[in-house]
Structure formats: C-alpha cells, structure tokens
Design brief:
The protein has 154 residues and is an alpha+beta fold. It has one domain: Hotdog Thioesterase (Thiol Ester Dehydrase, Chain A). Strands 1-2-3-5-6-7-4 form a seven-stranded antiparallel beta sheet.
Length: 154
C-alpha cells in the first residue's frame, strides 16, 4: 500500500454479526465488530452485563466471565471475518473450532466491562484458518490464545 492510499476497514453491527454467525442468545458472544480487514484481522466487542445466564452460577457472590467464553468470543470474531470474506460464494459456511493453544487468562472480566477481541490471521490453508487472539478491557490484556477453525459448507 502506498503512502497516499488509505485503508478502509469494514464494520458489522449486531444484525450483520447475526447474518455471519449461526450463534444466538445465550451463546452469541459478540455484540458488534468495529474493524474488519478482510479475513486478516478484526476487533469484536462484547458488553458484559449481569443479566447473562452464566453469572447465575459463575459465581453468584462474585460474578466472573468464564474464560472459555472469552476464547469462544475470540473465535466468533474470527469466524465472522472468515465467513464475511467468503460471502460472494453462494453456499453459506459454518465455522467449526479445531484447536486452542497458548491460552492464558490474565485478569478477571466482570459485569460492566467492555471486552475488545483483537484477532489476527496467522495462516490459512484451504478451508482452515489459524488466528491469534487477545481480549482487552480498558487497554489491559485479560486473555489470549492461538486457535484454528475450519469452514464447512452446508
């Protein structure tokens, strides 16, 4: 890209996210995507609220967002990018989780937090994508993982 060119990033509101992903409440983990650079990178957002069902049991006295749901939200952000990048195809695709590596949880996420899921493509081969993901709250890293997924046509 030359110095005079500007990069245009796409976004996806909740309605667009629901077109890209098959997930629905209570398992849709992202509220919108504020940056989409093809299938290369993106930033998804989750507004964590006390009304979510996981907080009834995790934990009632001290609610904490389960780490596995943070990783799922990273994967949903990446999956939306992959499906969006293939949208010109007639067959809609499903995204299946394949691996999770180098996963670390650094700080609890609690109701009231807004989590930004930064995902970046590491590799793509045929229908398999590998991403690095980082979850951030107020500029602080709360979780990270490397994960892969496969797109399968219906």
């Amino acid at each position: 890209m030359s110095e005079t060119e500007t990069k245009t990033l796409e976004t996806a509101d909740i309605m667009r996210v629901m077109e890209l992903l098959p997930h629905r409440y209570p398992f849709l983990m992202i509220d919108r995507i504020i940056e989409m650079d093809g299938d290369n990178s993106g930033i998804g957002i989750k507004n964590v609220t006390i009304n979510e069902p996981q907080f009834q049991g995790h934990f009632p006295v001290q609610p904490v967002m389960p780490g596995v749901l943070l990783v799922e939200a990273m994967a949903q952000t990446a999956g939306a990018l992959c499906v969006h990048s293939r949208e010109q195809d007639e067959n809609p695709a499903l995204v299946y989780f394949m691996t999770i590596d180098s996963c670390k949880f650094r700080k609890p996420v609690v109701p009231g937090d807004q989590v930004h899921f930064h995902v970046k493509k590491v590799k793509k081969r045929a229908s398999i994508w590998k991403f690095e993901g980082t979850a951030m709250v107020d500029g602080q890293k709360v979780a990270e993982a490397v994960f892969s997924a496969m797109l399968v046509d219906n």
